[in-house]
TrEMBL record:
Organism in which the protein naturally occurs: Candidatus Curtissbacteria bacterium RIFCSPLOWO2_01_FULL_38_11b
Subunit structure: Part of the 50S ribosomal subunit.
InterPro entries (alphabetical): KOW, Rib_uL2_dom2, Ribosomal_uL24, Ribosomal_uL24_C, Ribosomal_uL24_KOW, Translation_prot_SH3-like_sf
Name of this protein: Large ribosomal subunit protein uL24
HAMAP family membership: Ribosomal_uL24_B
GO biological process, one term: translation
Domain KOW: 3-30
Family to which the UniProt record says this protein belongs: Belongs to the universal ribosomal protein uL24 family.
Protein role: One of two assembly initiator proteins, it binds directly to the 5'-end of the 23S rRNA, where it nucleates assembly of the 50S subunit. One of the proteins that surrounds the polypeptide exit tunnel on the outside of the subunit.
Pfam families given in the database record: KOW, ribosomal_L24
């Protein structure tokens, strides 16, 4: 399960926009990259086509998740994300970890990974 969601507030920790804070606009899970508003913007000079005039266009390029820290909306610190199982999830068993949940009937775990897990801040343990 991917840690990031569209609209999350993030801090850039490396690269040319290091230190900037912005919001996630788009997620590319297969490449482990994110498009963040106003971050990693490059100027491209484009030739004129039928649909657009020639000139300089600003293109926001995706940035690797390795260079991004999520900002917790509860404690406003850059943090890491953990997952806990939702109590209402069909895979939830008190005292059982997610790994041990493998013994559950087929389908229930897949369901759990879709809707049963809750993101938590590793610093303040608050739900994000
Ligand atoms: Zn927090």
């Amino acid at each position: 399960m991917f840690k990031f969601k569209i609209g999350d507030q993030v801090l850039i920790t490396a690269g040319k926009d290091k230190g900037k804070k912005s919001k996630i606009e788009k997620i590319l899970p297969h490449e482990n990259k994110l498009v963040i508003a106003g971050v990693n913007v490059y100027k491209r000079h484009r030739r004129a086509t039928r649909n657009q005039a020639a000139g300089t266009y600003e293109v926001t390029r995706p940035i690797s998740v390795a260079n991004i820290a999520i900002i917790c909306p509860k404690c406003t610190n850059p943090t890491r994300i953990g997952f806990i199982l939702n109590e209402k999830s069909p895979a939830f068993r008190p005292g059982k970890s997610i790994k041990n949940g493998k013994s559950l009937p087929a389908g229930s775990l897949r369901k759990a990974s879709k809707q049963g897990k809750i993101r938590i801040c590793k610093k303040c343990k608050g739900h994000i």
